[in-house]
Specification:
The chain has 3 domains: about 5-75, 434 Repressor (Amino-terminal Domain), CATH 1.10.260; about 95-195, no CATH class; about 200-380, no CATH class. Helix content is about 45%, strand content about 20%. It is built from 11 helices and 11 strands. The strands form 3 sheets. It has a 7-stranded antiparallel beta sheet with strand order 1-2-3-9-8-7-6. The chain is α+β, with helices and mostly antiparallel strands. Residues about 385-390 have low confidence and may be disordered.
Length: about 400
Amino acid sequence: MDQKKVGQFLKELRKEKGITQEELAEKLGVSGRTVSRWETGTNMPDISLLVEIADFFEVDVRELIEGERKKEMMNNDIRETATKMADYAEAEKGRLLRFAQIIGIIGVIVLTVVMIIQSINYEPSVPSFILTLLTFVALVLMVVMTLYVTGVLRKIVKGKFSTAIIVVVIALFVIALKRLMAVMLLLGLMFFDVARPMSSVDGVENYDKQYFVKEFSGDLATNFFLFPDDLSETSAADFHYKYKVGLLDTDASFFLEARYSDEAFEAEVERISNVTCTVAANDTTYTQAVMYDEEMYNYPAYIAMDGYGDAYEYALIDEDNDRIIYVVLSYPDYVKLVKYKDYLKKDPTAYVLTGSTLENFCIYAVRSYEIPDIEMYVRYDDSMAGIQQGS
């Protein structure tokens, strides 16, 4: 079969009728582009359309297939056979379309449910963003395919579908696009936040406990109770701290290594061992003392906070050298803090926390079940009357 010859023949027949490609397409229920492809020989008409095309141009089906006119006309038997073939092909095509329609509708429903679940449980990260983006793209493609196989897309293209539905579809697309743009912006900010280096401050001349409490107590959930008010009683000291205020949390590490005279060392250890914090709420007060531990660290430790909100505050007691190491950590990364490993927990995996960190030990917060009529965690607030640091 010479497709180009057939296409040229169809073109001649159309011109004889004095109609355009669009007008022919309208009569046959196809697109103008489909007719154009027939006439250029790129594609051939579907077998189910051959009889209809032949009747419209008043030619023999065999003439269409061979691409030229014949003197004899198709006899009734041949025409009946071709008609049955066309009916069979149309029925088979209908069954396949119905199956595709069902699969398309189920696919749209499933992907919509997946998209909703992902939105509810969304946590900003690269894998989550890529998964959400791919789900959205798959949903859009599935919707387009379903509209096509159900014939709705053709009606939309031809302007025969309700304008309201088109507006709704566009609105949903815009909403989804805005959400994706927001997620992309958030991820961009997060990437920038992760790449941004921590600010670093060194030297005892930069030690200012009041400033630390004012600037960091809210983000780090600590009030530096274990740290000395000043370094006047020390014989030598070394101080370093790093911090980075992020979009979702603040990463920080404070290390104060202080040496004392024998007498000053004993007095400081006495002070640390008696540190308490009183939390007040609804005329009820609750006082918690620091925790003493000899197992978790390389030195005996007095602990004010151990993982509450991923933050830590403790003082390590080096009796052999009259030395105390004061530490505050927020979201510690053991690898980045490896130079201070002697002052960290013996087990690096202990910093990998799961579940709610608000259940972890902290003298600055009281769980709701420990104070009647309180339905939340109550934090220490030095602006509240009756709140004081024990000594």
